[in-house]
Design goal:
The chain is globular and about 50 Å long. It has one domain (3-181). The protein has helices spanning 3-33, 39-46, 48-70, 76-98, 103-127, 156-181. It is an all-alpha fold and 182 residues long.
Amino acid sequence: MNPQAIHYLNIFLGFGAIILQILSILTLILLFFGPKKNKFLDYVDKHFLVLSFLISLFASVFPLVYSEIIGFLPCTLCWWQRVFMFPTLFLFGTALWDKDRKVVRYAASLLSIGFLISVYQNFFYYFGGSSSLPCDVSGVSCYQRLVSEFGGYISIPMLALTTFFTLLTLLAVAYFYPFRKQ
């Protein structure tokens, strides 16, 4: 891929991540501090399987685009996040097919562990040393700035963190909101 196409892909994913971050925060505020009945939360609760499947689909496809097509090799922490993200595509796909809302119980553990790994990676990516040394013998560094959009705010670790956070937010709505409506 040429650098300009990669830049446009980064901008597209960056805007998507920022929109997901804003919507996730708004959703959590409405869920825990808003009125008991809310049309936005009704919509999210009704369609959480479709939304979760689509987000996990994007979160499974675009890391593969970055690594297999663009050639950005993933670091060790990225690999571990993939271990916990990729199965959610199949969990949410199967749950969507069967209309099974109990997927919340199964996906929550995978997403929580992936989220913690992502928080760890983002902490050291943004606040740790700016070493370009490899994290392990593979030669790939967790600190390498392969994507840096919107003043450095959007990076591959931030995209992963946003995805885990958004999916956990959707699971929180699916789990807690039906109890609040009563």
